[in-house]
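Two proteins were folded this term; both appear here.
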Amino acid sequence: MQYRRKLYQAARQYDVLFISSQDFLWIDPEVANSTIIPYVHDIFPATTLFSSKLELNRARKYLTNVVKCSEIVCASEETKRDVYHRTPFDGEATVIYQGVEQPCVQVSNRSIDLLYVGSVIERKDPTFLRESIALAAKSGFNCVAVNFKEIDLPCKVLSGVSGRQLAEVYASSNYYLHPSKAEGFGRSPVEAQTHGTIPLGRDISINHEILGEEGKDWHSVSTPNDVVNIIEREVPRWQRRAATENAERFSWNKTVEGLSAVLSGNSL
């Protein structure tokens, strides 16, 4: 509630108001004094799949308001296409990728064969996730999952980890499981790449856009057997370097420069 009051106050005070999270697009752009520019992070089908009534109402409010904006910033080309294809939005959409934190640790012992970081909501394909981890663990591989809420997966689960601890887990892993059926960007697999950890994901357009060249920067998988067959391989050094170089595309400096250009253009 305090954030909402500050948001409405800013909308009266400034010519341009950039809203960095779609969850906070409570203001009707047609009645605001400011030009409202929201950052559209997630794809729209996922946005409306919240579990609680409060979240669902917030998603509907968001969808109602975003189409009233004359300009938005999208997290990916995939998100941009989704906006135009699934909503009546007909304004200008600019793609500015998120920044990803660069490695702050170095770990020489990669003791984790398969890592997963995130939730088990439906679009993450929890069935595929659980079956892949279960098969990998049964095959003798060390599997670890990280989440800040309790999750039920057939492997060691870490919760409440700090940013540095998470970086250490990434750096200790060989492969990262990215089972999502749909994403607006997908931070975790890119964070894994910064540490030379190779993502295993679906053959979907957002992965090709964000994760780089398939077979080089990441691997496509469609069954749990695919996952196990790949993690049996030792990751060559050239592939770790390739994954790291792909992740370097997503720096916070580039994000800030892109946003500054959009906001400056609207304030002239």
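Next, the second protein.
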Amino acid sequence: MRTVSTRPEISTLAELRASGHRMRTLREEIRENLLAALAAGVDPWPGLHGFGTTVIPQLERALIAGHDVVLLGERGQGKTRLLRTLSGLLDEWSPVIAGSELNEHPYAPITAESITRAATDGDRLPVAWRHRSERYVEKLSTPDTSVADLIGDVDPMRVAEGRRLGDPETIHYGLVPRANRGIVALNELPDLAERIQVALLNVMEERDIQVRGYVLRLPLDVLVVASANPEDYTNRGRIITPLKDRFGAEIRTHYPLELSDEIAVIRQEAHLTAEVPDVLLEILARFTRALRSSSAVNQSSGVSARFAIAGAETIAAAARHRATVRGGTGGRGEDGPAGADEAVARLVDIEAAVDVLGGKIEFESGEEGREDEILEHLLRTATAQAVREHFAGLDLTPLVDAFDGHRTITTGERVTAEEFLAELPELEDPGLYDEIAARAGANGASSPGHRAGAIELALEGLFLARELSKESGDGQTVYG
């Protein structure tokens, strides 16, 4: 999280000039700040994963060129997050004429009121400061959005006060003019009615606005960026051709190409109420990627990153629920009653997450009735891939031999880590359990929850390899 520096003390035009402040247009400001960050080796796009060699270079070239930008991509690909990051390229503090409705620069007033004030006050013209976070404006493009919302309209209250109807001061400015010297982001642009999109043509080309026939030539300084879902663009709505032509850059986004980036997104965005080991996030990421490549899933709607994020949060919630119900302390400390479980997620919690996440997936029309079967198969595939990745070359034969045909091990959403570990058979080589824990990211000093989770994953791998049997039901799983 970026810290906010102290607001500058400069309060008049004379002080601003004396400070040596140089006025830059918005595009010059973004271009120079971006180039300075790149030259210094500073990442201008914190928190974005998987776009480093694809989307980011295209966006940087567009900003250097001074282009308005539209991002096209399926849901949950990080379009909005990317747009919000643009504000980091603005100066942290920017001077404006104090009380200016359109945030005009003290050196260049554009409204009649501010021009009059500048001429009257001279060097005493009051100066205020805006933080860069105030210079980013976001609007969800909904069908009920009006021209008045975006551009402006006549304010009847001001007319009632006695002003002439042709007086520019009777105008109530909309979102775009009020974002002057800032960034306007329009989410889901195709959902904006076509007649409303027409109102943006002048803003993006001539950089001025027209309100109900008023002769206004306000040279607005705004960067217009937008996002759109390709499916919506073709089916539910569209960006009109003249507006589409005015965007200097159309950039396609995508889901993370690398597994490591997928995991990083989940870890960064999920708000976890309990600890979720990395190996479980890996399985969840592999599961999500398998859904995106499955012919049984409708890929035109995409499988959002929010699916994996919600999955991680549900897994953590299942662990917290078990810790609270069985331990009474919620895993908050070590002084709970005997058998108290810590809040560490295990493999059994992933199945609980899949049960509630299935509704977030759109299956192909011919797959009715097979949804649960498809999800179970893809989850097993993802788990098997993780098992091979972590346990390749490890001889688990002693663990298989310990099941003599009568011994079983029970786990489940209500089984604590301590109970699970107490059931484990003794091995001739007790170090095997330590090796399993280490391979899954835990070690000998890890908590029982981490150790139990690693061994549980190994047992599931043996089941998938048909070395062990498995029976599930009533919230319990029995390996034998």
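The first helix runs from residue 13 to 18. The mean pLDDT is 85. These notes refer to the second protein only.
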